[in-house]
Every structure is written in structure tokens, then in C-alpha cells.
Inverse folding.
């Protein structure tokens, strides 16, 4: 199993970024987490497979972020709009061995066994 993030970068407040997570050897739940240096990693959103049901850690993220999946490319995206300086973080995609998705799983990193290397998003 391999997950590879891309698409991070620097953007001004109010701007947008789309992150990509290329997945190989795995076709189940994929989640996005983020981590600010010195703080705990926190869940952002997840998407199930094959149905594609989406979950967001809270409503404030759901209004600005959109998680989606291109099954043909086995790639999961995180579209982020209206970015704020508080969104500055390293963003990681992750997968779970049993494939179950849901908001509860976004509350704990231990629920995910597969992780990418991360991609940095900086909002100024």
C-alpha cells in the first residue's frame, strides 16, 4: 500500500488549493489529516469506497473543504477554498485496513495504518 500526496504550496488568505493523494494497492476508506508543527495531527475529511460517502470532522471544514475521489485514477482529492492562516499545516492522506469510514475515525490517528509523507500548505 502506498499513498502519495501532492499539490501543497503557499497561497494568500482567501485563496484555494487542491491536494491530491495517489493511492496504490488499496481501495478502501481514505482520509485527510493535517498537523501544525508542535500540535497533534487532526482529521479533516474522509471518503468511503466504493460508494464515495464523505465525512468531515466538523461543519466549519465542510463549508470550505471538499473531499472527492476519482476511482479510475485511484486518487483522492481535497479541494480547499477560502483558506485562512489557521489552515497552515502539513496535510497527510491515510488509509485503514478494514476500510470503514466515518466521523469517529477522524478523531484518532491510530485508526489509520497507512500514511503518506505529507504535503505542506502555507496560508499567509
Amino acid at each position: 500500500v502506498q499513498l502519495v500526496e501532492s499539490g501543497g504550496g503557499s497561497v494568500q488568505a482567501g485563496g484555494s488549493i487542491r491536494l491530491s493523494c495517489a493511492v496504490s494497492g488499496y481501495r478502501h476508506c481514505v482520509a485527510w489529516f493535517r498537523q501544525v508543527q508542535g500540535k497533534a495531527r487532526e482529521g479533516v475529511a474522509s471518503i468511503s469506497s466504493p460508494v464515495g460517502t464523505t465525512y468531515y470532522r466538523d461543519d466549519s471544514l465542510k463549508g470550505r473543504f471538499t473531499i472527492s475521489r476519482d476511482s479510475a485514477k485511484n486518487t483522492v482529492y481535497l479541494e480547499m477554498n477560502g483558506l485562512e492562516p489557521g489552515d497552515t499545516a502539513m496535510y497527510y492522506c491515510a488509509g485503514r485496513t478494514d476500510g470503514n469510514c466515518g466521523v469517529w475515525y477522524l478523531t484518532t490517528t491510530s485508526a489509520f495504518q497507512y500514511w503518506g509523507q505529507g504535503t505542506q500548505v502555507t496560508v499567509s
DSSP finds one helix and eleven strands in the chain. The chain has a mean pLDDT of 94.
